Amino acid sequence: MNKKTKTNPKMFYFFFFIIACLFVVAIEEKFAAIHIREHTEKNYRKVSELAARKITTLIDEKKNATLGIALALAQTGSVQRALAVCDPLGLDLSQFSLLLRRETSFKNVWIQIVDKEGKSFYRSWTDAHGDDLRKIRTDVCRMASNPGATTAISVGKFDIAIKAMAPVYDSGGAFLGFLEIITHFNSIAENLKSEGFETVILVHKKYKNQIRFPFTDKFVGQYYVANKNAPQYLLDHIQATGVDLFFNQSSTYRIDTPIGSLVILYTLLMVL
User: Fold this and answer.
1) How confident is the model at residue 245, as a pLDDT?
2) Is the model's pLDDT at 166 over the cut of 80?
């Protein structure tokens, strides 16, 4: 596998709201109060560290699974033939995406095929194609000059997504282009919810103008909400509280008294 050099920093934020009952107990002994506070903060740190490890594992697992799908699909004859004759007519991979939706946790898989010149040849989620991706994506330029399988997390015109790219060759080994599988963060949020975590995934406001066709159509102020299943009551709460308050907190966790929750901030800094 040819790992690609990464360039532009991206910043994403994962908020975990753990619903908890908050009790206030009056204790006369100052030492006892300090001891309880230290014990409580220690538990909060443990939960924060647990959430961080869990989300890191889930992202890595989904990146690997997304790459596996890309590598397998890049070997199919229909994809190779379509690129070889430069004709996407009859190429319909949307049914494959629907199959994944029915049979797996991958509910919104997008498939893109790009020719060796870096032009979008086919997209499963839209009829738009023919645009030169080399003008806006350095990873496409790198793939064209040095083909190899790769995965990344990136912000594009439609969303923040996990992307896996796999080169497509003809029977003689000539490079024809590449296939790209694009997956989203909803399944990760669902997995966390099954373990008691409510999740809101936000993309930093400096990328707002980059997301021209937002997949979820959701924003908190100028911050794009990347998971469709983000609870509305939490989006309303973040909006009312002020999203910058969460971003600017120095700790990885805080007690949010109005909703009786422990809020954990997971910052994902990706360089693509």
Assistant:
1) 82
2) yes
> 């971003």: which residue's tokens?
247
- For residue 260, count other CB atoms closer than 10 A to its CB: 13
Q: At 207, which amino acid appears?
A: Y
Segments in the chain forming alpha helices (H): 30-73, 77-84, 94-103, 138-145, 186-193, 232-241, 243-247
pTM of the entire predicted model: 0.79
Distance of CA 242 to the CA centre of its chain: 23
The pair of three-digit structure tokens given for residue 51, joined into one six-digit string = 């959430």
Residue 148 phi/psi, 5-degree rounding, is: 175, 150
Pairing of strands 219-220, 223-225: antiparallel
Among the ranges given (58-67, 72-81, 99-108, 186-195), the one the predictor scored with the smallest mean pLDDT: 99-108
Instruction: Give how far Cα 144 sits from Cα of 7, 102, 117, Å.
Output: 17, 34, 7
127 φ/ψ sector (left φ>0, alpha ψ -120 to 50, else beta): alpha
CA atoms of 162 and 184, how far apart (whole Å): 6
Cβ atoms of 151 and 67 closer than 8 Å: yes
CA-CA distance, 177 to 87, in Å (whole number)? Answer: 13
Cα–Cα nearest to 114, from 146, 154, 86: 86
